Amino acid sequence: MKARFVLAFLLLSGLPPVTATEEGKPNILFIALDDLNDWIGCLGGHPQTLTPNLDRLAASGVLFTNAHCPGASCNPSRTAIMTGLSPHTSGLYENSQNMREVLPDAELIPQHFRNHGYRSTGSGKLLHYFIDARSWDDYFPEKESGAPFPRTLYPDKRPVSLPRGGPWQYVETDWAALDATDEVFGGDWLVSKWVGQQLTEEHEQPFFLACGIYRPHEPWFVPEKYFEPFPLEDIQLPPGYKEDDLDDLPPAGKKRGPNRYFAHILEHDQWKQGIQGYLASIHFADAMLGRVLDALNNGPNKDNTIVVLWSDHGWHLGEKQHWQKFTAWRAVTRVPLMIRVPESAAPGLPGGTKPGTINDDPVNLLSLFPTLTELSGIPAKDDNDGPSLVPLLRDPGSNWNHISLTHLGEPGSYGLSAKDWRYIHYAGGDEELYHIATDPYEWTNLASDPDHQSKLEELRALAPNSFAPLKEPADTSLPKLKWHPVSDGTAPPSKPQGKPFPVSFTNQRSATIELFWMDPKGVPKSYGIVAPGKSKGQQVRPGAVWKMVDAESGEELGHFRIGKQRSGAIIPAH
Fold this sequence. Notes:
It is built from 15 helices and 26 strands. It is of the alpha/beta class. The chain has three domains: 2-407, Alkaline Phosphatase, subunit A (3-Layer(aba) Sandwich); 414-460, 2-Layer Sandwich (Arylsulfatase, C-terminal domain), CATH 3.30.1120; 475-571, Immunoglobulin-like (Sandwich), CATH 2.60.40. The strands form seven sheets. Strands 5-4-7-1-9-12-2-13 form an eight-stranded mixed β-sheet. The longest helix is centred in the middle third of the chain and has 27 residues, at 271-297. The chain is globular, with a radius of gyration of 25 Å.
């Protein structure tokens, strides 16, 4: 009745009517931090971490202490969050996949809000190393550039602290304190500056404003002042580390756990230095968050802006003999999640959230899309896979009959989080079971314990019955290997390391090419031919060298050295 009266008044007065999407809609500040596990003060993940701004945001709203990511790496997790589609629905499970190749028509959160009267803007990393310009009204850096990172200071000579162990090693796995101010460092400082500026201004439309803080993603290079609170001699090892933690794992778990990164770090006596770099990077990210929160709190949008903060996945620093992500253990799946709704700001929660609320129900970041639409009072997207969190925001004691799934890189491998339990299932059938209430670091696998078979069966029954197949990336979307023409030298011997993966060799020449693998003694071994204009898939290993030869003349043309990930190899026309 009130809305009809206002509309009639505006029509009679000759003023333009206010649309339903413009009237009484809350703003949304959507904050992502990259690779942040539970090492923040309010989650208690590490006793030395310094995160005053994360802690004050948590204290001002609802902190979810049992929140989990949809995928165990960046691309599947962020794609699921931004589309509302679970990996087992979309078929996007890996970093190597291209989101728009797999989901060409998917509507992302910013576009959905644009469709309902919002102005959607963003800065920094929200998707997997691309912006998706069509989903935003404005972006920093410019959305047309496609690259979400502003200028960032890095050392001139790298690596600084951790020598590269081979082509298998991610080039950014390194750490050091930089002699630079925040402003000179750039990166997240520039992101926080741009986002902060938007928050200090009044806006004609409700806004969806996304802030992607890149740290603590590698490399762990941040200004020196963020290292100072963490003297190397005082660094404590991860509380979840246990030397014999692999003994009770099934074969798939033992294979997933130990990786060459952790062994390499130990070999070079860099474990504590790595922990120091991660803590310093978290401290830096927290300071950048503080700049954003201060801009909001001191500006005109404080009382009508919903704040959501999340991280795409966690990170191992030696637990289960593992470094990095890509596992279904809690070190990776459990992430920070905080939501603050001001009183009288959101149609879906008029009373707002109660400061200092803590919720320990199993929730998933897949729920952010439907939660924000319900809070804002705009239509839901029909194909969202996750349940809205609004019932828990309204009453943390609500009956929550949901579990949370984190998918690994192959269909059928996942971690399932319940209230006090975690169940891990690998595609080959191996299983793990942990009672988190008494075993938060997952040290004791109960899957083979006869006393817990009923719980195992109960959790098995809660998992999906079907999984979308992994949609292989097209050759055109893969990163490209460097071509070394014979003028740079003949093909050297291979130094293969690590697990095999496919590479596509594409022949752009008018002549037929013969592929040769160079064995470790430098002896070439033929692996077939590639016709002009055609491609050939081949299993390779990091460090392998593949020589290209003109099949008719026998002339060596050049070679490729295989890197750490699936790639494309283009044999140039000249």
